[in-house]
Design a protein that fits this description.
The chain has 180 residues and is mainly β. It is built from 1 helix and 14 strands, in the order αββββββββββββββ. It has a 7-stranded antiparallel beta sheet, with no helix packed on it. A 5-stranded mixed beta sheet has the order 1-13-14-7-8, with no helix packed on it. A hairpin with a 4-residue loop joins strand 2 and strand 3.
Length: 180
Amino acid sequence: MSIAAGLTVCGVLAAPVALAQGSVFQAVPVDEANFILVSAPIGQGERSQLNIYEQRTSKRPCFSVSGGAPAMVDPLLSTFDFTGICSRYIDGNGYSLRIGGDDLGTRYRLTVVNTGSDMELLAAPTRDRSQPTMLVARSGGVASGFLKLSFEPGWSLRRRAYGKKGLGHLYIYRDTAPQS
């Protein structure tokens, strides 16, 4: 019997994605008050993608948020040279999925989906379609433009680190895989 099968029989594994492959990188906590997850429209706005904005200094605001559910985001960093003031993470080079010690960046993609009543950030399997799709965050409604996404319980942001050095990559992070 394989180790994974034995652990599953013992009830240790919560979901298949919980098997850790390990990583040379660590996931270190960040001050989430300096970050915002955004559903950013693509082109004419029929589709959206995940953007993450980071306020690195107080020199000037990188974004503003207004309204309730859904909350509208004004990406102010698009109106000035934000070098050293803000960071913008707009694709898989800037962020990836991580559960515990397992970096799932090559096995899951983060995608924003309009359900008709909400904008949802989903982690969808790219290689093994039998793996679960996970709900990570949602906007709380639908509107045109940039919308704030709020994490579902258990999800957070972490920074990729090598040893003690923080890197320019963020993890959408959970300690363990969510229950199906």
